[in-house]
Amino acid sequence: MALLITDECINCDVCEPECPNEAISMGEEFYVIDPRRCTECVGHFEQPQCVEVCPVDCILPDPDRVESRESLEQKYEGLQAGKEKAV
Fold this sequence. Notes:
By secondary structure, this protein is α+β, with helices and mostly antiparallel strands. The chain has one domain (3-86): Alpha-Beta Plaits. Helices cover 26% and strands 14% of the residues. The chain is built from two helices and four strands, in the order E-E-E-H-E-H. The chain has helices at residues 49-53, 69-86; strands at residues 3-5, 24-26, 31-33, 59-61. A two-stranded antiparallel ribbon has the order 1-4. Strands 2-3 form a two-stranded antiparallel sheet. The radius of gyration is 13 Å and the shape is globular.
């Protein structure tokens, strides 16, 4: 499932550079995660890197976007294929 950043975000800027899929960006009030790009770091790392570095634990699973590990792997593969085409 994609992750989401709650309104408890303090805009500390540590999560954005950790995302290997460039799914995190600054929203209107705090950082947001693009669910189309979030694979919970499947394909890159064992644990979501944004969750690992967040000092206030405001990054949670998005209950509206439940995805299996298999679907996250497929999303990762699609993102990687898109990168290869862009090069």
